[in-house]
Amino acid sequence: MFDILMYLFENYVHSEIELLVDEDELTKELTRAGFHQVDIIKALSWLEQLADLQESDKPYLCNHAQHSFRIYTKAEMAKLDVESRGFLLFLEQIQVLSVETREMVIDRVMELDEPTLVLEDLKWVVLMVLFNVPGNESAYEQMEDLIFEQPEGRLHS
Q1: Whole-angstrom distance, CA of residue 55 vs CA of residue 69
Q2: What pLDDT, on the 0 to 100 scale, is given for residue 157?
Q3: What is the distance between the alpha carbons of residues 97 and 78, in angstroms, rounded to a whole number?
Q4: Can you spell out the DSSP letters for 17-68?
């Protein structure tokens, strides 16, 4: 499923070609690319849920708190290792992620099929969320810089 999300993101995010809106056409394209039907359905559902988060009435997506302390559940800690959780905190500290977008990232990570998520894959999920949430263009550009122009050494401690 994650491979499909990466395929769509890499092929459409910087392309002049609009993402095919017709789900049947998109499914056919993904099938031709070698992806399995079950994984395609899961990936498309994941993207729909990401879009739905913007209109959600989930209490953790409220914009009331400027700063917050995040306590992770056991399931979240199992999927996001210490390095990944530290990276999310780092992104909040440099204001790439807000409380809302952090929670959207965690929500989307928890819906992936992978039992654990490596830091490099988490970075792509962050990019996907920032790309799909209007008003985060600056944060998206900052995140791109962190991924593609990564300086030598640690990004955070």
Answers
A1: 24
A2: 43
A3: 22
A4: SPPP--HHHHHHHHHHTT--HHHHHHHHHHHHHHHHHTT---GGG-S--SS-
